[in-house]
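Table S2 (continued). Query chain:
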Amino acid sequence: MAGARPVSTSAAIYFLKHTDVISATAMSHDSSVSAVTPAPFQAAIIDLDGTMIDTLGDFGVALNLVLAELALPPVLPADVERMVGKGSEHLVRSTLAHVSPGLGAAGVEALFPAAMAAYQRHYLRINGQHSRVYDGVVEGLTALQARGLRLACLTNKPTAFARPLLAQKGLDGFFEVVFGGDAFERKKPDPLPLLRTCEALGTLPARTLMVGDSSNDAQAARGAGCPVVLVTYGYNHGQPVSAVDADGTFDALTGVAAWLVSFSSTCPAKPL
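Corresponding output:
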């Protein structure tokens, strides 16, 4: 399947164990599986930044407005990309430390309250103005819904940023629930947000697919007992997504939906 990478044998076994397989024949050396009848996935939990929307421009603009207020040097987009993904607090702290190494940990903490307040103010003002929906996202979400999957958006982005962004980009209607990084006591990569999202949807973790772009998403899914696939075009802290422990990678969200059709009908695990 174009735009998708082969799944490993271990990943194929994972899907067989976690989708209520009724019958199967032997697994071949190319990791394909024939004559398998899996129960369908109940839902998909989709990450936001780097998975559905390229928000790197928003992050950069907001952070540089903060740094200008604090009379600190600007941060480059490539550096922002490496720091995105672990929540706003982590992003602001990491940016302060990056642009002014001489601050030290104590200096960063001294500046953090003012920097965080400024970041929230600026981000809310420019939210979505320098971002775009990735190609294939609308089509992919539409196809996932057509497959009968219930959809949730789970992000480390604050809820006050996530909901307006989804609405502005016309994606909010796809999701039954939207949870930001401030919705629960802990953020991804802790599994708690995924477990709570499954509870909100009323679905089993083993039959709820996590779709993200980074090791945060994969680690959270592994801890929660959810299968997980990653898109190849996201951020992942500047590291290659191929190195992440996930069940497969896709070049577009449409590939995930297409794989589910194939998996549900003939279940060759290899199109992942």
